[in-house]
Design brief:
The protein is mainly α and about 325 residues long. Helices cover about 75% and strands about 0% of the residues. The longest helix is centred in the middle third of the chain and has 33 residues.
């Protein structure tokens, strides 16, 4: 019996490597079970026409998003102004945090003075730029003088209760409590608790800026945003230096300080939107933002600045901050 000749297209013996390199007319197929990395997968599955389609779709989405946002901000200029003002304040927080690259230590006394100064700015801002305008806005829509005072008082209490609720709902860590236990193995997780505390502190500031721009007095809104931005510079520096003193790198400390200020534009937009609901909402929003800031001053700023034995220096800083904000309100308002 004469054996039949082998067919080169159908070998009698299967060979895995030959199968793996066989061509099907388009591209080589990897063997079953062969490992392919992400680049290979993209090369095999993502054709040039797919890439072009995705890029065109992305450009289209960006253009439509820009048109939508541009149209919205054109129709609601107070929201755009609030976004710009609160973003500027967040930028000044970032500027202060970047100072950690130039200095590693700041004396406790200097930190207390800075905290006191920031508290003074916030105190004057809450009174001159939020609470008094809240009563004026209430009278402008028909409230009697006594009724406007009652409305402002109620709004202040509601704003304070709002921040109190945030304190209970969101885990956070005060700096002094964190610094007292530097060798704890849990300090890595406490960095985010501390940043969260500063974020809670910054949210009412952004909210106040947004509410200010939602009002009718643009000058007072600019003064409010300027004052809060000024006190955000030392605040960002103190946050970054606090983390630096716990052993974190300058880059991580600065990033945490910058991160803590990013909530301000969110608060700014929300505050402006709240005032745009109706004319009746404006005095409530102004008074509520003022109450939120008063709560932060009493609950966070003043106690922190008085715990290290520098009460007199911190109080002088508070007075200086109050006068600074008062002058800004008069000059710009």
């Amino acid at each position: 019996m004469i054996p039949a000749p082998l067919n080169k297209n159908f070998p009698a013996k299967s060979n895995t490597s030959d199968d793996a390199t066989a061509f099907d007319g388009e591209s080589p197929r990897p063997a079953i079970g062969a490992k392919t990395d992400l680049g290979d997968s993209l090369t095999l599955n993502l054709k040039p026409r797919h890439i072009v389609t995705l890029l065109v779709a992305l450009v289209f989405v960006l253009i439509k998003s820009y048109e939508t946002l541009h149209g919205y901000f054109t129709a609601n200029p107070h929201v755009w102004a609030a976004l710009l003002g609160s973003s500027a304040a967040a930028g000044l927080t970032a500027l202060g945090a970047m100072g950690v690259f130039f200095t590693r230590r700041l004396s406790v006394k200097a930190q207390d003075v800075m905290l006191g100064y920031g508290g003074g700015v916030m105190l004057a801002a809450s009174v001159f730029s939020l609470i008094i305008p809240a009563m004026d806005a209430a009278q402008a829509i028909g409230y009697a003088k006594n009724a406007s005072v009652f409305l402002a008082a109620t709004g202040i209490m509601l704003g304070g209760l709002f921040v109190l609720a945030l304190n209970h709902l969101i885990p956070h860590q005060h700096f002094l409590a964190m610094a007292s236990d530097r060798n704890s193995a849990a300090r890595t997780s406490r960095i985010w608790l501390f940043v969260m505390a500063v974020t809670i502190h910054n949210f009412p500031e952004g909210l106040a800026i947004g509410v200010g721009f939602g009002g009718e007095d643009f000058g007072k809104a600019v003064a409010l945003a300027t004052g809060i931005g000024i006190q955000d510079i030392p605040e960002g520096l103190v946050v970054a230096l606090a983390l630096r003193s716990l052993g974190y790198s300058a880059a991580k400390s600065a990033a945490a300080g910058i991160l803590s200020g990013l909530v301000e534009p969110i608060g700014g937009v929300l505050g402006a939107l709240a005032t745009g609901v109706s004319a009746t909402a404006l005095p409530w929003a102004l008074a509520g933002a003022g109450g939120a800031m008063l709560f932060v001053i009493s609950h966070e700023v003043i106690p922190e600045s008085h715990r290290q034995g520098h009460e007199s220096q911190a109080t002088l800083g508070l007075l200086a901050g109050f006068v600074t904000m008062m002058l800004l309100d008069v000059i710009l308002g």
